[in-house]
Automatic annotation (TrEMBL):
The protein, known as: Adenylosuccinate synthetase
PROSITE patterns attached to this UniProt entry: ADENYLOSUCCIN_SYN_1, ADENYLOSUCCIN_SYN_2
Residues that, per the record, bind Mg(2+): D14, G41
Cofactor comment text: Binds 1 Mg(2+) ion per subunit.
Gene Ontology biological process terms in this record: 'de novo' AMP biosynthetic process; IMP metabolic process
Subunit structure: Homodimer.
UniProt source species: Buchnera aphidicola str. Ak
EC number(s) recorded for this UniProt protein: 6.3.4.4
Amino acid sequence: MNKNIVILGTQWGDEGKGKIVDCLTSNSAYVVRYQGGHNAGHTLVINGKKIILHLIPSGLLHDNVIGIIANGVVVSPLELIKEIKMLETNNVFIDKRLFISSASPLILQYHIEMDIAREKKLGISALGTTGRGIGPAYEDKIARRALRIGDLKNEKTLSTRLEKIVSYYNHQLVSFYKHKPVDYKIILRDLLPTIDLIYDMIQDTTSILHNAIQDRKKIVFEGAQGSFLDIDHGTYPYVTSSNSTIGGVITGTGVGPKHLHYILGVTKAYSTRVGHGPFPTELFDDVDKHFSQKGCEFGSTTGRKRRTGWLDAVSLCRSVHINSLSGLCITKLDVLDGLNEIKICTAYKNINTSEIVSFPNIDEWENIIPVYETYSGWTKKTLGIRKLKDLPYEARNYINRIEEITQTPVDVISTGPDRSDIILIRDVFFC
Ligand code: GDP
Ligand code: IMO
Ligand code: MG
């Protein structure tokens, strides 16, 4: 039986989802983005050439694959066009291979200005957003005032509704945030030329996916962000504004759970986080330098330095539960090469009482410290290894321990940024 698979991040984003989606879609018919927007930065490296995608599904570099930007994604038409053009300059043509849901909410200039104005006003309490207007765009959706992709098809109502929304935003931007206003005529002027370019892509993507399921086509669902950036299950309020956990696939596409056959949790072999918020295993020492430099831990979207730390198996176990993971993909194993010792956080301890505590509430994070298990590192290079048996004994031991702690099989291991740097232990489409 052909299976549909979901590939999502189990940590705070940037786990290497883009690379894994690219690797696993070569024999698929469809690849689907279901939440988030251009806050995502998914890096693909193919024969040494790097491409970073923000909105366009990562599997589209295979020219047999059809891409869907489903209803759960917030879409900036200007960014979308920019990305299509960037791909064209790289000889990737997605003409007639990309469909966008008419129900996807739009991201327009006022969302971006509002995101920036709010962060500025929050000062040291800022969330550290990507400044892409994601929060305000999802707020408009929930408040039932969003302009959506389908609205681009009717220029007259688009213009009337845009004028109203802009006056609503300008009132807040100027009066409350003391920020510059936006001009609806300029927004409309910039938006109109994009409509012709994407008009034919605007579709009922739920129907496309249902037909694909009936035709028994393989579908890969590509998550953005990570489970602890999820609006409900993440380290609120230091989260994004969508459901990056498994539920986001269902509401964000209109495909029901019985059609999701395998859920792969992409997990970096250590931890990173960009932006503010709890991070129990965060390091500030030479190991942080090692992860930063060897792992090139700088944001794919904003270029910010990512915070780094040891693997946090407490939160990973929670990710396994909240996403019903079928298996794990451990990425960036090669970044651990050369470390004398490697640690895994296996419990959280109350800093005052030394008692082991369960998963903290938002006001409890600062009272916990990690409890570690320590393992020997390895000196041999794992970069580019493609067979499990070729990994050093200590690296296999590390993988085995992750399986034991999480009670979840590691089915894929990534050993470098390139598409070909991968160990496929089980075929996730057929296991
Ligand atoms: P995503 O947002 O989850 O798709 O991840 P990003 O693309 O933002 O960040 C992952 C970074 O790690 C990118 O620079 C990738 O090229 C790189 N990467 C992915 N897998 C591996 C790996 O196994 N080893 C190394 N060294 N780099 C990797
Ligand atoms: P990918 O898909 C890492 C973080 C931001 C900030 C918080 C809220 O590449 O893994 P937002 O702009 O979404 O309102 O910011 O979420 N964030 C990410 N961190 N990877 C991402 O995406 C992220 N998308 C958002 O840094 O802390
Ligand atoms: Mg990223």
